[in-house]
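Subject: for your reference before the review

Hello V.,

The reviewers asked for a structural picture of the protein, and I figured it would be easier to keep everything in one thread rather than splitting it across files. Below is the amino acid sequence we used in the manuscript, unchanged from the supplementary table.
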Amino acid sequence: MDHALELHSVLSALTPRDLPRLHLTIRAAAGGDRDAFARLYADYFRMVHAILLGRVPRRDVDDLVQDVFLTVFTRLKSLREPAAFGGWLATIARNRATDHLRQTREQVELPKDMPGGDSIDADTFAVLDIVRQLPDAYRETLLMRLVEGMSGAEIAERTGLTPGSVRVNLHRGMTLLREKLEWK
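And here is what came back from the structure prediction:
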């Protein structure tokens, strides 16, 4: 995608009143303001979580979210256009997932009698595996909506997609998901 066209889609997704607030928050965070960075983290955590959940094993997602935001914290000064923050952050998350999957690590199984949190239903993992097979645009928007509970407007604002694109991605993604679930 042409960089100018991508920037235009990001800018058009943000309302005029959001741009100055986002710009100020990013500049403050880049200058070391921890409260401003905490606001960015709170606003964009669910988007990053959904992107990673669609690409890496569930057990690794929380650690990778932290890695992504650490990277953002250290590179924020290099962001030239604050309005492009959502797309820039999503790219960092996708790249971190790819890097993580390239690493080969031996996995050690924990004992079955080890105490822990509530177990996740096997059907949930089966559905997540099906969602992971969907094209990126559908996968990410579905996970942001269904897992993270983000509204269509929130998804558009965070990712830089237009509200219409988000609606189309959600509709097409749900259609594909339903088809795949029926075949299972």
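For the response letter, the relevant points are probably these. Residues 163-183 form the longest helix (21 residues). Residues 3-183 form a domain with the Rna Polymerase Sigma Factor; Chain: A fold (CATH 1.10.1740.10).

Happy to draft the paragraph if you're swamped.

O.
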